[in-house]
Amino acid sequence: MKKLTRHLPLIVALVSINCVFAQGTGPILNEEDVSRFIETYRPMTQELEALGHDLDMGEDENTENMFATMNASIAALMANNEVSAIINKYGWDEKFGMVFMTISFGYMYNTMAREMEALPDEQKEQVKPMMDMMLGQIRSVTHEKDLELVKSYLTELDPVFKE
Q1: How many domains is the chain built from?
Q2: Category of 26 on φ-ψ map: left (φ > 0), alpha (ψ -120 to 50) or beta
Q3: pLDDT tens, 143-157?
């Protein structure tokens, strides 16, 4: 239950970036994006952290507008020449911000759904309304094909996000 509720502040803020990710815009990800993300995320973030920058912006449970903050932080990072050079070094371009956000949302969606399925029936019933709302909000800003693609890579993404 604690794992499920830790995502609540993240989901509440999803609405604030609805204009960035719209269901009608089509999928953002392809298999190459997800594979490259898995391969490059850790070494890239290590280089960024050595310069004092951080992409891991989703863990502050006290931030009400987590997604808006995350979106603004990524935009600011992408505008930094040092950051852009590192991101480009790993084969990314200006699309990286959208890929990062989409994979993050897809991972969150699929892990929350997985955690929900693992709950005993009684607990499922207790958290179902909240989970349906949160999962629905993610679905409203993330294309279904992106959610499906990320789901197919959950095993590979687990160590990336849990490290």
Answers
A1: 1
A2: left
A3: 999 999 999 999 999
